[in-house]
TrEMBL record, chain A:
The lineage of its organism: Bacteria, Bacillati, Bacillota, Bacilli, Bacillales. One of its GO terms (cellular component) is 3-isopropylmalate dehydratase complex. It comes from Sporosarcina limicola. It comes from the Bacteria. The keyword Iron does not apply. The gene is leuD. It catalyses: (2R,3S)-3-isopropylmalate = (2S)-2-isopropylmalate. This is 3-isopropylmalate dehydratase small subunit. Its EC number is 4.2.1.33. InterPro entries: 3-IsopropMal_deHydase_ssu, Aconitase/3IPM_dehydase_swvl, AconitaseA/IPMdHydase_ssu_swvl, IPMI_Swivel, LeuD. It is an enzyme of class 4 (lyase). Belongs to the LeuD family. LeuD type 1 subfamily. Pathway: Amino-acid biosynthesis; L-leucine biosynthesis; L-leucine from 3-methyl-2-oxobutanoate: step 2/4.
From TrEMBL, chain B:
It holds the Pfam family Aconitase. Its cofactor is [4Fe-4S] cluster. It catalyses: (2R,3S)-3-isopropylmalate = (2S)-2-isopropylmalate; citrate = D-threo-isocitrate. Binds 1 [4Fe-4S] cluster per subunit. HAMAP family: LeuC_type1 (MF_01026). This is 3-isopropylmalate dehydratase large subunit. It comes from Sporosarcina limicola. [4Fe-4S] cluster binds at residues 346, 406, 409. The gene is leuC.
Length: 197, 467
């Protein structure tokens, strides 16, 4: 996966809570056997009407956010299905960062495995970002190394992230290769279990 | 030290621990299906890796298999996924119950049925409803495809130790109230993110009185409460269910295993990070009216008003949900007419579910404006239901009797609810478009769905059962 550290872009304010992974990527698009090519299906039924015309008032269809790399939403983002197609489609569409007050567990860990940075900020901080972002395009700068989010008006926020995941994202590590360094522990564990039977 | 069951199982499975890192956890059983695994196998091949313990894996095909004309799959992309799983299992020596195998079925139904699911195991699957297996007193949770790949090649996962939560259901359930109503009532009361970061243990008199199949329904939906997993301490009910199943040890080895299983139960006096309680007597048959599983009410209630909520975002969420669902604030639930009934899914398509639904519909007819289907959870369930005569009860009442699979639970095959139409469903998710673009899903128990099929609208099934 690609390393990630600094990202600067206007934020896309997605004014919803409990955004579930069925909405992020609908099941009719899960039949591919590759990891790529899911971006065009992101939020498909929110972006397009049944006749495939654009839903004009959906935020992702607003030209001003076309180049945005940062998605901001309310609580419990990514709930529901474990489909990793959700972060794949978000990344493939062009976002590198999702900011919300909270994330569902499986989605959060799926982000980490793909180099999509999920940032938890306080509810009030997210509300503030959303309010500014809705008023007019609002550019923010994310720095993972420093664990900060800074707005164009210099308003700054800091966030927490597990140090293990932070290193993984910063370095773009392959987790399986890392785990192989502990193979002797796995073998020992298996031998111990064998003796118990 | 007193430990709860979650701590006991966790501690036993830590392969490696170091401060500042998640624990490296050993995985005892890895279940696979056709939709979330192809990219994982592809990853193995690209990196020249192999499967560490193929015999700890078990695969089946369920998500996009057709429930009619299974021999001629029309959808070429679905067929490709099904064939890909077959090839991957052949290449990596993974046991597979494919479409022709008598054990085939929804992955969370066949794991327990075959006795693969056992107390004390760590169980994962690229599917969020893996929490179902927790009913046996195992730590079972859904994972993403990268984690599937990680488990395939290392048989482990890096996992931060979750917090623990006790959800206690006190007292006895009333007449006609099912385990589906219990879990829907819990989620409605505490919200769909109540369990985030936690593993839940369900306890209390009402839980102890449930059969294994009913316990599976509760644990199945712990993910809808946002929990990493949900489980129930093993007891004699658990041991009795497992005895004689295909992958369970026999004779003296069974007695030894059973003693170990029972020893895993939470110690008297053990604590949790969070405890919540609910009274069984307060729960009535439940129906959801919104677009997530917490948006539901007892059948005697009405849809809430925006003014009942304090925050603007909650008012807004209610309005958005009702617009999507084509419903109004304040409507009584019993005034809502339906066009479809789906009895199926890993939540409620076991033999006992079909028995309960058949009892409600026996001798009656499906309402003329309703299309109703029954999709058994596995081929074994289907066969047993046919032998018992349940299939003919459904067919005589006007239900369609289908082959097994996930079917209309997520509508990846051609079992789809058309846009704008309403379905009484025994599945677990009522998200927008879950059963087809524009479809409107209402979650409930098999009994309630069966009663709705007859009445053509939501009714209190207890009125039918009392007669
Ligand atoms: S029945 Fe539904 S919830 Fe269960 S595994 Fe299949 S798609 Fe998932």
């Amino acid at each position: 996966m690609k390393p990630i550290n600094e990202v600067t872009s206007v934020l896309t304010p997605l004014d919803r809570k409990n955004v579930d992974t069925d909405q992020i990527i609908s099941k009719e698009f899960l039949k591919r056997i590759e990891r790529t090519g899911f971006g065009k299906y992101l939020f498909y039924h929110w972006r397009f009407n049944a006749d495939d015309t654009k839903v004009e008032d959906f935020i992702l269809n607003d030209e001003r956010f076309k180049e945005s790399k940062i998605l901001v939403a309310h609580e419990n983002f990514g709930c529901g299905s474990s489909r990793e197609h959700a972060p794949w489609s978000i990344l493939d569409y062009g976002f590198n960062v999702v900011i919300a007050p909270s994330f569902a567990d499986i989605f959060y860990s799926n982000c980490m495995k793909n180099g999509l940075l999920p940032i938890r900020l306080d509810v009030s901080e997210v509300e503030e970002l959303l309010a500014k972002g809705k008023q007019q395009p609002y550019t923010i700068h994310v720095n993972l190394e420093k664990q900060t989010v800074t707005g164009q008006d210099e308003k700054a926020y800091s966030f927490d992230i597990d140090p293990y995941y932070k290193q993984m994202l910063l370095n773009g590590w392959d987790e399986i290769a890392l785990t192989f360094q502990y193979e002797s522990h796995i073998t020992k564990y298996e031998e111990r279990q064998q003796q118990l039977v | 030290m007193m430990k709860n069951i979650i701590e006991k199982i966790w501690d036993q499975h830590v392969v490696y621990e170091e401060k500042g890192k998640p624990d490296l956890l050993y995985i005892d059983l890895h279940l696979l299906h056709e939709v979330t695994s192809p990219q994982a196998f592809e990853g193995l091949r690209l990196a020249n890796r192999t499967v560490r313990q193929p015999e700890l894996c078990f695969a089946t095909m369920d998500h996009n298999v057709p429930t009619r004309n299974r021999d001629a799959i029309q959808d070429p992309i679905a067929l490709k996924q099904i064939n890909t799983l077959q090839t991957n299992c052949d290449e990596f020596n993974i046991p597979l119950a494919n479409m022709d195998h008598p054990d085939q079925g929804i992955v969370h139904i066949i794991g327990p049925e075959l006795g693969l699911t056992q107390p004390g195991k760590t169980i994962v699957c690229g599917d969020s409803h893996t929490s179902t297996h927790g009913a046996f007193g195992s730590i079972a949770f859904g994972i993403g495809t990268s984690e599937v790949e990680h488990v395939l090649s290392t048989q482990t996962l890096w996992q931060a130790k979750p917090k623990t939560m006790e959800v206690r259901i006190n007292g006895k359930l009333g007449f006609g109230v099912t385990s589906k109503d219990v879990i829907l009532a819990i989620i409605s009361k505490f919200g769909i993110d109540m369990g985030t970061g936690h593993i839940i243990e369900f306890t209390g008199e009402a839980i102890r009185n449930l059969t294994m199949e009913e316990r599976m329904t509760v644990c199945n939906m712990s993910i809808e409460a946002g929990a990493k997993a949900g489980l129930i301490s093993p007891d004699e009910t658990t041991v009795a269910y497992l005895k004689g199943r295909k992958h369970v040890p026999e004779g003296a080895a069974f007695d030894k295993a059973a003693a170990y299983w029972l020893s895993l139960a939470t110690d008297e006096g053990a604590t949790y990070d969070t405890i919540v309680e609910i009274d069984a007597a307060d729960i009535e048959p439940f129906v959801t009216w919104g677009t997530n599983p917490s948006m539901g009410s007892g059948i005697s209630a009405h849809i809430p008003y925006a003014k009942d909520f304090e925050s603007e975002s909650d008012k807004d969420a209610l309005k958005k949900a009702l617009t999507y669902m084509g419903l109004e604030e304040g409507m009584p639930l019993t005034s809502i007419a339906i066009q479809h009934v789906f009895i199926g899914s890993c939540t409620n398509a076991r033999l006992s579910d079909l028995r309960a639904a058949a009892k409600v519909v026996a001798g009656k007819k499906v309402h003329s404006s309703v299309t109703a289907i029954v999709v058994p959870g596995s081929r074994t369930v289907k066969k047993q239901a046919e032998e018992e005569g349940l299939a003919s009860v459904f067919i005589e009442a006007g239900f369609e009797w289908r082959e097994t699979g996930c079917s209309m639970c997520l509508a990846m095959n051609d079992d789809v609810v058309p846009a704008g139409e309403r379905c009484a469903s025994t599945s677990n998710r009522n998200f927008e478009g879950r059963q087809g673009a524009g479809s409107r899903t209402h979650l409930m128990s098999p009994e309630m769905a069966a009663a709705s099929a007859i009445a053509g609208c939501f009714v209190d099934v207890r009125e039918m059962q009392a007669i």
